[in-house]
Q: What sequence folds into this?
């Protein structure tokens, strides 16, 4: 027991002694640091003066040195935004000694005149000489505009800029400029930098400013005439740390096609603005976000993010939410329940509710109410099932995530405005106007997130636009998709409304965008614009929201076009004629590009083509056939194909490849098929090895417009 006590006391003494030792070491270190500061301030000199003397004159200060801002990348690692260094060229005329100065001033003046061309050699020399002898001036900029990094490297070989023991005086003031290789594509989404503060002020640049900006360095600068700050020496007290890199979900191929389709329709309709968002159903990844505003006759630019902050009455796209609430509440069979819409006009509480179809739809089913977008039909269904249950209806809207922002990791999202009965603007007929998309405010992104949940079998997914934040190649923050665990409604309701949304395209108001290659599901929306408190005839906010392919949805999309103008019939200003065609064009392009969602087509392959054993360039095949003692291929055609018949005998057929958009590739090697298709401008992907046995685009005319083909080899 005694030994244990003594052992404990010894351990305690050892710990105390170690603590004292550490304390003394820290004390000595503090004294050394303090002594170093005194030495630097009062004894180290620069240009014959101590730092304390400079500080007293208030012309030498510690200042922040900007860091290199991080990059922004697309989903395929294409560069969307980066910072490039530029430099102002300055000259401290009093640094070099007299002998060096007068021996090299003529050479410097000549180089300045030859390269900068802002003055003559004599003019440059005269100005430098005036500053050299002046008592109040010493530093001047030699070029009004900044130079590039490559130009800076060349200038570093000039006199006064090259490292020389008795020379010096040449200075470079570093600034960073943001460069966007794809500009003006997605300009508003990527964002911009405030030139004064260097901080992001819109878009992703603002939303992820803290990660992108990095940590500034600290170094001595000398404040000279004109308020300019020039660096003193090359060493910095604290080195700047570059900002982090942002990896987005944007696909610039989709972005380009989206902006082209949107701009074309805006020009055609002379509309005020438009927006398109493309989102991946399962993950919520935004693949494209286009926002174009009219800036003059025939001119559209990205100046405002309508997708994120452009609130408006959504119009008939909101009928999907109302129909889902009705189905959840009643469990009705929408093909059996009917309403009588009459002649297309119905008086309701001193208001006239009209259907877009003049003359009315007569008696239609609940499914047709959505397919034909009947305002009268949706109001009658609301009267029948929710007349005394407004809170129940509002509860369903909350359940569908329609009364809250999406929470996308991007600044500027405007919250939706869905009134409840506590609102001063609530009236006894508010619910009925809300049922078909009025008396509310929603952004396109919020509407799209709702439609995306339907496409995702009822599971709501938060839209996302950034995947990762990296420090060089090291991933510091990975942003995973966020999917709600609980669906927004029952599977039965999802099944019913999916069928209705397909019906809108197959037989309803959007039947003209039906595709033979894949199924589109979606809903049109046309809302009169609220101007000075009045919903104005002829001023429309048009939209189409939906997803594709409908059987296995991969992408959801919304198109917004505001105030389209037309001298034709009223319907030419409605969503079916304005927004829906843009949706179709964008969806067609994506379907053509994304091989994974294409259905293999084999019905156009020639009869008994499975018997083809070889195909390719005729000359190459004849070399092989000669070696194998086979019948040679006919040489009247550049390409040929061989099949076996009657006890292994070979039959040759010429194969035409030049006149067709898509030639028959069956039996060809990957090398020959790749050569043919890439020369025709196609992007070729493949799976397997051996000879081509199947191609995603059938031989003949390329009706789909796709420029991507998938080859199956075996």
A:
């Amino acid at each position: 027991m005694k030994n244990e006590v003594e052992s404990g006391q010894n351990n305690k003494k050892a710990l105390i002694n170690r603590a004292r030792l550490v304390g003394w070491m820290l004390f000595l270190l503090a004294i050394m640091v303090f002594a170093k500061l005194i030495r630097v301030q009062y004894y180290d000199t620069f240009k014959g003066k101590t730092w304390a003397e400079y500080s007293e004159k208030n012309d030498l200060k510690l200042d922040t040195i900007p860091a290199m801002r991080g990059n922004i990348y697309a989903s395929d690692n294409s560069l969307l935004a980066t910072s490039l260094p530029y430099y102002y060229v300055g000259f401290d005329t009093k640094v070099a000694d007299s002998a060096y100065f007068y021996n090299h001033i003529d050479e410097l003046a000549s180089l300045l005149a030859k390269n900068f061309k802002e003055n003559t050699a004599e003019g440059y020399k005269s100005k430098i000489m005036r500053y050299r002898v002046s008592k109040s001036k010493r530093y001047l900029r030699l070029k009004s505009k900044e130079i590039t990094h490559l130009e800076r490297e060349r200038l570093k070989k000039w006199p006064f800029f090259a490292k020389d023991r008795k020379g010096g005086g040449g200075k470079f003031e570093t600034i960073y400029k943001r460069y966007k290789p794809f500009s003006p594509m997605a300009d508003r989404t990527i964002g911009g930098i405030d030139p004064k503060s260097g901080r992001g002020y819109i878009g992703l640049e603002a939303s992820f400013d803290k990660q992108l900006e990095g940590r500034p360095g600290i170094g001595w600068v000398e404040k000279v005439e004109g308020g300019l700050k020039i660096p003193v020496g090359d060493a910095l007290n604290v080195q700047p740390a570059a900002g982090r890199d942002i990896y987005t979900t944007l696909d610039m191929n989709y972005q380009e096609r989206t902006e082209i389709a949107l701009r074309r329709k805006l020009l055609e309709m002379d509309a005020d603005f438009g927006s398109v968002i493309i989102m991946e159903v399962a993950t919520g990844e935004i693949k494209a976000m286009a926002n174009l505003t009219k800036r003059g006759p025939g001119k559209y630019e990205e100046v405002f993010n309508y997708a994120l902050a452009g609130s408006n009455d959504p119009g008939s796209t909101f009928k999907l939410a109302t129909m889902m609430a009705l189905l959840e509440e009643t469990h009705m069979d929408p093909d059996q329940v009917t309403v009588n819409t009459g002649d297309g006009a119905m008086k309701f509480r001193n208001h006239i509710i009209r259907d877009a179809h003049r003359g009315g739809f007569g008696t239609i089913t609940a499914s047709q109410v959505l397919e034909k977008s009947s305002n009268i039909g949706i109001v009658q269904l609301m009267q029948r099932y929710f007349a005394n249950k407004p809170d129940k209806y509002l509860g369903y809207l909350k359940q569908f995530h329609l009364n809250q922002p999406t929470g996308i990791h991007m600044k500027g999202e405007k919250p939706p405005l869905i009134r409840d009965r506590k609102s001063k603007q609530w009236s006894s007929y508010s619910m009925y106007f809300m049922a078909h998309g009025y008396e509310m405010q929603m952004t396109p992104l919020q509407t799209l997130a709702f439609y995306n949940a339907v496409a995702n079998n009822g599971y709501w997914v938060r839209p996302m636009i950034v995947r990762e934040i990296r420090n060089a190649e090291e991933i510091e923050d990975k942003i995973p998709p966020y999917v709600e665990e609980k669906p927004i409604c029952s599977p039965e309701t999802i099944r019913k409304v999916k069928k209705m949304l397909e019906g809108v395209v197959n037989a309803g108001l959007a039947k003209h965008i039906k595709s033979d290659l894949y199924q589109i599901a979606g809903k049109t929306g046309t809302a009169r614009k609220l101007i000075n408190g009045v919903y104005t005839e002829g001023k429309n906010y048009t939209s189409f929201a939906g997803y594709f392919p409908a059987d296995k949805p991969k992408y959801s999309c919304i198109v917004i076009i505001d105030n389209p103008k037309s001298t034709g019939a009223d319907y030419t200003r409605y969503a079916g004629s304005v927004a829906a065609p843009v949706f179709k064009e964008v969806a067609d392009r994506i379907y053509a590009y994304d091989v994974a969602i294409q259905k293999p087509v084999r019905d156009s392959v020639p009869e008994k083509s499975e018997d083809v054993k070889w195909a390719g360039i005729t000359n190459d095949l004849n070399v092989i056939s000669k070696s194998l003692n086979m019948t040679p291929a006919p040489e009247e055609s550049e390409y040929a194909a061989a099949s076996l018949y009657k006890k292994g005998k070979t039959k040759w057929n010429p194969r035409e490849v030049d006149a067709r958009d898509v030639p028959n590739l069956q039996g060809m090697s990957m090398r020959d098929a790749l050569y043919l298709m890439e020369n025709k401008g196609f992007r070729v992907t493949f799976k397997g090895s051996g000879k081509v046995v199947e191609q995603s685009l059938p031989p003949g005319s390329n009706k789909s417009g796709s420029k991507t083909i998938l080859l199956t080899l075996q």
